[in-house]
Amino acid sequence: QVQLVESGGGLVQARGSLSVSCAASGIFFSIFTMAWYRQAPGKQRELVAAITSGGDTNYADSVKGRFTISRDNAKKTVYLQMNSLKPEDTGVYYCAATYRAGNYWGQGTQVTVSS
User: Fold this and answer.
1) Are 62 and 84 in contact (CB under 8 A)?
2) What is the C-alpha to C-alpha distance for residues 23 and 45, in angstroms, rounded to an integer?
3) What's the pLDDT tens digit per position in 37-86?
4) Would you call 89 exposed, middle or buried from its count of C-beta atoms within 10 A (0-12, 13-18, 19+)?
5) Residue 108: what pLDDT?
6) Which of 2, 45, 52, 57 is the Cys-Cys partner for 26 at CB 3.0 to 4.6 Å?
7) Cα 22 from chain centroid (whole Å)
8) Closest to 6 (Cα-Cα) out of 108, 103, 75
C-alpha cells in the first residue's frame, strides 16, 4: 500500500520560514519524481517544486529563490524548505510521487502565512 504522509505545516508570520516533509512508503522511492503542490482556497492546485530521481529540480516562478526542495532516498523523504514566506503562500501543501503511469498523493498539510 502506497502512503505519502506530509508533516510540518503550521502558522507562520510573513517573512518567516517553515519546512514541510513527506515520508513515503510502499514505493521504490528513489526512482520516483517527487513534487510539492499547493492549493489555496478557491484556486486550482498548482505545482510548487519538483525533484527528479537524478536530483534535478524545478520551481514555480513565484517561489524561485525562496523555496528549496530536496530528497533523502535512504529515508524515503522529500522536503520543502520555505523561506521569506508571503501571505500568498498560504494553502494546503500536497506531496506527490510520479513514475511513468503511477501517480500518488498525500493528504496534504496546511500552511498559513499571516501578514
Assistant:
1) no
2) 21
3) 999 989 999 999 999 999 999 999 999 999 999 999 999 999 999 999 99
4) buried
5) 97
6) 2
7) 7
8) 108
CB 8 within 8 A of CB 106: no
Q: Regarding beta strands 57-59 and 46-51, do their DSSP bridges make them parallel or antiparallel, or are they unpaired? A: antiparallel
Average pLDDT, the chain: 97
Query: Distance between CA 84 and CA 54 in Å, rounded?
Result: 27
Band of the pLDDT at 101, cuts 50, 70, 90? confident
Q: Using CA atoms in the order 6, 15, 90, 95, what is the torsion angle rounded to 10 degrees?
A: -30
| DSSP structure class, residue 74 | T
Q: What pLDDT sits at residue 102?
A: 85
